[in-house]
Amino acid sequence: MSTPAVLPGLIPCLMGPTASGKSAAAMLLAQHLPVEIISVDSALVYRGMDIGTAKPSAAEQALVPHHLIDIIDPASSYSAAQFRSDALRLIDAIRARGRIPLLVGGTMLYFKALRDGLDDLPTGDAIVRAQLEREAATLGWPALHARLAEVDATIAARLAPNDSQRISRALEVWMLTGKPLSSLQGQARAESTLRFLNIALEPSDRAVLHARIEQRFDLMLEAGFLNEVKRLRARGDLHPDLPSMRCVGYRQAWAYLDGQIHGAEMRGQSIAATRQLAKRQLTWLRGLPDRVVIDCLAEDAAQQVLELVVHAGICPLDAVR
After folding, report:
1. How far apart are CA 128 and CA 141, in angstroms?
2. Which among 161, 172, 222, 239 could disulfide-bond with 145, CB atoms 3.0 to 4.6 Å apart, if both were Cys?
3. What pTM does this model have?
4. Alpha-carbon Rg of the chain, whole angstroms?
5. Range name among 30-44, 103-117, 169-183, 282-296 with the lowest pLDDT average
């Protein structure tokens, strides 16, 4: 394991695919360093979605402050722009308390937004979105996807016909600005001046990670995951097209409870989708040139993370507990 030069002011980012042991490493850091954890996970923001997201337990959250967990209702949405704004605010506040902000998660879009900035796009408009939702309810999202192809073929080609969230956003931008989203992306960015220590927990053997993913999903089922989804469905205001219900596992459980697939299919599809997510996460990480890689399958992976953070000079040695 290589150790970077001492750079005071570095912010540690603990990233990796699902089931790579990020939470365990973060908790070890919290036992020895004055950290506060900022979650970088697009599923942990939702209240009432605990088992299927492998949310830190109440005991873990009591041991160290956690941020950006349970902050919105599953009927709502949370964007990369919102994450960036919240994370920057939290980083300043945590540092002002004399503590270390520790970013932990696997939503690579959020890390990218924080690291590289965001395109200068119009904010969401509730009236326009409501109009699009009404039209989709009547015509279907494939029809709106076809409409998008007429005004922004570049974006439409990237999206599935039922990708309601992204189709809606692209049409919203067109309706608000008269310009295609593809022409606005990359024009202006609010770049961050922060410096990050990117620590990537990556598997030396993909098959072992796959086995971990399978085992973890089975443990979720034993812990009552399907009952959790039943409670969410019973609210009556949630549906499968919401960002929250499109989270890996929840989408498949919803289809099972609708009678569209049987139990074995639900399990197999959930595990396969999680493996695909891990593959995308690893692909993104391997394009990050300044990351420090630690084998997440090593028995002392969490200890290696701790040593790396200490040796990088992020925390004075006299503050190490």
Report:
1. 15
2. 161
3. 0.81
4. 21
5. 169-183
